[in-house]
Amino acid sequence: MAMAATVAIIGGGIGGLTLALGLRRRGLDAVVYERAAELHEVGAAVALSANGTRVLHDLGLSGELVERSAVPTELIYRHWGGGRRIAAYEVGQGYSARFGAPYYGVHRADLQQILASACGSERLLLGKQLVDVSPSARGHRLRFADGTDAHADVVVGADGVHSTVRRWISDVDPAVYSGTSGFRGLIAVDAMPSLPDPGAIQFWMGPGAHVLHYPIGDGSVVNFLAVVHEPSEWAAQHWVREVSPEALEAPFRAWHPGVREMVGATTVHRRWALFGQAPLNRWHRDGIVLLGDAAHAMLPHHGQGANQTIEDAATLAECLHRDSRDDALARYERLRKPRTRAVQRSSWVASDLLHVPDGPAANERDQALANIPATLRWIHGHDAEATARASGRY
Ligand SMILES: Cc1cc2nc3c(=O)[nH]c(=O)nc-3n(C[C@H](O)[C@H](O)[C@H](O)COP(=O)(O)OP(=O)(O)OC[C@H]3O[C@@H](n4cnc5c(N)ncnc54)[C@H](O)[C@@H]3O)c2cc1C
Q1: Rounded distance, CA 165 to CA 304, Å?
Q2: Contact 131, 144 (CB under 8 A)
Q3: Residue 288: helix, strand or coil by DSSP?
Q4: Which positions fall inside the FAD-binding domain (predicted)?
Q5: Distance 178 CA to ligand 1 centre (A)
Q6: DSSP conformational letter for 279
Q7: pLDDT by residue (tens digit) across 316-344?
Q8: Which atom of ligand 1 is nearest to the CA of 13?
Q9: Of 9, 14, 212, best ligand 1 pocket probe by most atoms within 8 Å of the beta carbon
Q10: Number of structural domains the chain divides into
Q11: Residue 347 — pLDDT band, cuts 50, 70, 90?
Q12: Which structural domain, as residue segments, surrounds residue 96?
């Protein structure tokens, strides 16, 4: 069976769905092909900063997002043991006013569901795992594992860090293990009586590890990511591995009681290897283009993987709306490559800084946290769509 689409989006994650909505808003037709038979979230929750929420609000999703998200009060950096507040910045109403859009903590299942229902089942085809792309008289022919095929002028690889589409653009496998791995979980605030400021986004920074958490939904639950060093080779074979509760708790045994309550309460005992990505030389070739983690997977320490993916989607939609196919893809790559590389680099630097032991290096890092407002400005203050519009001769 052949299906026709002008733009085929491979992957129904945050990036693919946001792009489909952005294209539709501009009157362009797109079909999303997702390999999963039903949409289920990867990981627990996601923190969306103003550079992402601005785009989602423009797509008309603010009502649902407000209803299902928590707005954190502050961004706080704390000492791992005593819990001392090392630095803190307001991210509630003042943040929203400053950057023109709010900060949200949202369950991934809720975000996927909001995006998928806006997309509609006619334009989001499940159970479609892409296995091949070849040139055809009608642009590209796509073949799926279920034996069906489709044609499209533009093929967008929004298929994540282990992208299949990437092989038609680059023969390099760019995944780079960071030497760190993470545990994630959702914990009721009630289960952590010693945790100060559960309504804030907080980084607890300590020797060889850190913990990041933020509230989601109605604020009664906190999503956490605990990151530890794991410099061994296991990550190459085991991207996700089941571990014992002791393996999770051991690195945090001497930490603040609030942190111990958090990691001790999780029922998920899985360790995710954290991968970054070596920069790709090119993002598109002959009408096939990459977006999101497929193009620039990054470490989660700035909470920017999904937000940069949303920025990509807004930029690509605007470029495809304005330009001919090849000009649009070239402009998109020109606009997005430098910015995503800068965020990727910054995330790697943060990975080391969050883990330094107490002493002169930690003191230096703590003083440098005074620059956080500047970091927030260049990352969260960005307006991807306006930048794309301003970049052309439109
Ligand atoms: C521990 C952790 C915490 C994070 N926290 C945050 C955070 O707080 N804020 C933030 O901004 N980012 C965060 N991120 C990053 C964020 O999750 C990703 O950057 C984001 O999900 C990327 O979206 P995507 O659409 O590019 O890819 P994905 O979300 O990975 O979606 C890819 C989709 O493609 C589908 N697919 C794959 N192959 C095929 C195929 N061959 N055919 C059809 N479909 C296919 C997959 O099933 C999937 O649905 C975090 C990441 C990690 C690991």
Answers
A1: 22
A2: yes
A3: strand
A4: 5-345
A5: 17
A6: P
A7: 999 999 999 999 999 999 999 999 999 99
A8: 31
A9: 14
A10: 1
A11: confident
A12: 2-174+277-391
Task: Determine the Cα angle at 37 with ends 31 and 40, to 5°.
Answer: 95
Going by the DSSP 8-state scheme, the letter that residue 264 receives in this structure is H
Percent of the chain residues topping a pLDDT of 70: 95
CATH number of the domain to which 146 belongs: 3.50.50.60
Contacts of 136 (CB under 8 A, 6+ apart): 151
Res. 237: pLDDT tops 70: no
Closest-CA residue, ligand 1 atom 29, reads: 13
Give the model's pLDDT for residue 212. Answer: 97
341 is a domain residue: yes
Please indicate, yes or no, if residue 263 is contained in any of the structural domains: no
* Res 367 pLDDT > 60: yes
What is the Cα–Cα distance from 94 to 92, expressed in whole angstroms?
6
- pLDDT higher than 70, residue 394: no
β-pairing verdict for 154-157 and 7-10: parallel
The answer to whether residue 214 sits within a structural domain is: no
Cα 100 to ligand 1 centroid, rounded to whole Å: 26
Task: Write out the two tokens for 167.
Answer: 């092989």
Q: State in Å: Cα 324 to ligand 1 middle.
A: 28
